[in-house]
Design a protein that fits this description.
Blueprint lengths: L7 H20 L4 E2 H10 L22 H4 L1 H17 L3 E5 L5 H12 L6 E5 L3 H14 L7 E4 L6 E8 L8 E6 L2 E9 L5 E7 L2 H14 L5 E5 L1 H9 L4 E13 L1 H4 L10 E4 L2 E3 L10 E3 L2 E2 H10 L3 E7 H7 L2 H6 L6 H14 L1 H5 L2 E8 L18
Parallel strand pairs: 2-3, 2-5, 3-4, 5-10, 10-14
Antiparallel strand pairs: 1-7, 6-7, 6-9, 7-8, 10-16, 11-12, 11-13, 15-16
The protein binds S-adenosylmethionine.
S-adenosylmethionine (SAM) binds next to loops.
C-alpha cells in the first residue's frame, strides 16, 4: 500500500500495541476472534487508536465526521433533541463524543432556542478524547460548563436524549464466513514471522446463533463473509433496563439487514482509515488507523425491541436533516461570504445521496414518547427494517 509513512514515534507506538496483541494471541492458544483484535486495536488502555493520542479527527487526522464539516449538522439535530427533551426530561447524554464539536454545536443552538438541557453528560471510552472534549467545550461554551459532566459508565437509570454519532460503527464486530462445510468465525493468528494473519475456527455460541439466523434470512451462499457486531446489539439492548423515558438518536452508516448482507457486500464492510486513505487491511499499523464496520440497523432495532424499547423512527441522514430544517438554518446565514459557501458545500455533502445523505441513517429508539418525531416526519423508512 502506498500510504504516508508514520513518524518513528508513531511506529514505535504501533509496535507496542502489536506486541500487546501478539501476547494475547499466544496466551489464547494462537487465535483470537477478530472482534477482540478490533477491541484491542481501538481501545487497549493507553495503546489503542482511540485510547491513545492519535490525532484521529479533522484534516490533520485520519477522517472527518459530520460535526467537523459544519455546525449546521448539530444545529439541525438540536431541533430533534429539543422535541425529545420536551417530551421526556431536559438531559442529554452523548456517547462517544469524539472531539466535543457536536456537544458545543448542540448546546449553542439549544441556548439560541431557549431550551438548554439542565445537564449535558458525556461518556467516552477514550481518556484522551475526554481531555480533548473538555478543551473544546471550555473554549466554545465556557458559560455552560456547569451543565457538563463526564461519566465513567452508562447511568443505571436515565430520562432524556441519548445521542451517538458514528458510535455503533466503532464497536468491535465479529467476522463470520458462511462456507459449504459450516459457519466459521474469522480471527487473527501469527505466522512464522510473528505477523498477523487471518485464521478461522468453527463458530460457536452467540456468534453461531446470530450467523445461522442471518444466513437463513438472507439466503447467504457459501463463501459469503461479513460482520456481526454483538457489542453494538448488546449496547442497544442495555438501554432496555436503563431508559425510563426518552430516546436514543443514533446516526451512522449502514443498512437494513437485507441490504447489509447483500451479494454486493459478499466480503463485508470492514474499512480502515489512515490519514484520509480508506483501505481494507486491519493489520496495517495497529493503533494508528481507525477500524470500522457498517451497522446492521435491523439487528440494532431487534436488540432494542427485545429489551422492551420501541422504534420511533428510521430514515436517511439526508431526509432527517431536511426534516429538521437544515436548509432554513443555511438560509439564515449571510449569503455574501466565504463562510456561506463553505457551509453550503458541507450541507451538500451531508445531504446528497451519493455523499453522506443516503449511506448514513438516523434511528430513534425509545420509551414513553407518544408524539411523532419531527426528524422522521417525511420519508420514514421504518418498514424496511
Ligand atoms: C468514530 S468516533 C465518533 C466521534 C464523534 N461522535 C464524531 O462524530 O466525531 C467513535 C467514538 O465513540 C467512542 N466509543 C466507542 N465505543 C464506545 C462505548 N461503548 N462507549 C462510549 N464511547 C465509545 C470512541 O472512543 C470515539 O470517541
Amino acid at each position: 500500500m502506498n500510504l504516508p509513512l508514520p513518524s518513528p514515534d508513531a511506529q514505535a507506538h504501533s509496535q507496542r500495541l502489536l506486541e500487546c496483541i501478539r501476547r494475547e494471541i499466544v496466551a489464547h492458544g494462537g487465535w483470537i476472534p477478530f472482534a477482540r483484535y478490533m477491541e484491542l486495536a481501538l481501545y487497549a488502555p493507553g495503546l489503542g487508536y482511540y485510547t491513545a493520542g492519535a490525532r484521529k479527527f479533522g484534516a490533520a487526522g485520519d477522517f472527518i465526521t459530520a460535526p467537523g464539516m459544519s455546525a449546521l449538522f448539530g444545529q439541525a439535530l438540536a431541533r430533534q433533541v429539543a422535541q425529545v427533551m420536551a417530551a421526556s426530561a431536559p438531559v442529554i447524554l452523548e456517547v462517544g463524543a469524539g472531539s466535543g464539536r457536536l456537544a458545543a454545536d448542540l448546546l449553542l443552538e439549544l441556548e439560541r432556542r431557549a431550551c438548554l438541557p439542565e445537564q449535558y453528560l458525556i461518556l467516552d471510552l477514550s481518556a484522551d478524547l475526554r481531555q480533548r472534549q473538555q478543551q473544546t467545550l471550555a473554549a466554545e461554551v465556557p458559560h455552560l460548563l456547569p451543565r457538563l459532566r463526564w461519566l465513567d459508565a452508562l447511568p443505571e437509570s436515565f430520562a432524556g436524549v441519548v445521542v451517538g454519532n458514528e458510535l455503533l460503527d466503532a464497536m468491535p464486530a465479529e467476522i463470520v464466513a458462511w462456507r459449504e462445510n459450516g459457519i466459521f468465525e474469522r480471527g487473527v493468528e501469527l505466522d512464522a514471522a510473528g505477523s498477523f494473519v487471518w485464521g478461522e475456527r468453527p463458530a460457536t455460541g452467540a456468534v453461531l446463533a446470530a450467523a445461522q439466523q442471518i444466513g437463513e434470512q438472507c439466503q447467504l451462499p457459501p463463501g459469503f463473509e461479513s460482520e456481526i457486531s454483538l457489542a453494538a446489539r448488546a449496547w442497544a439492548a442495555e438501554w432496555g433496563g436503563r431508559l425510563s423515558a426518552g430516546a436514543l438518536l443514533l446516526i451512522d452508516y449502514g443498512f437494513p439487514r437485507r441490504e447489509f448482507y447483500h451479494q454486493q457486500r459478499a466480503r463485508g464492510t470492514l474499512m480502515c482509515h489512515y490519514r484520509h486513505h480508506a483501505h481494507p487491511d486491519p493489520f496495517y499499523l495497529p493503533g494508528l488507523q481507525d477500524l470500522t464496520v457498517h451497522v446492521d440497523f435491523t439487528a440494532i432495532i431487534a436488540a432494542a425491541h427485545g429489551a422492551g424499547l420501541e422504534l420511533l423512527g428510521y430514515t436517511s441522514q439526508g431526509q432527517f436533516l431536511l426534516n429538521c430544517g437544515i436548509l432554513d438554518l443555511l438560509g439564515e446565514l449571510p449569503n455574501d461570504s466565504v463562510d456561506y459557501i463553505r457551509a453550503a458545500g458541507a450541507v451538500n455533502k451531508l445531504l446528497m445521496p451519493h455523499e453522506m445523505g443516503e449511506l448514513f441513517k438516523v434511528i430513534a429508539i425509545g420509551r414513553g414518547i407518544d408524539e411523532a418525531l419531527c426528524g422522521f416526519a417525511s420519508g420514514d423508512q421504518s418498514r424496511r427494517l
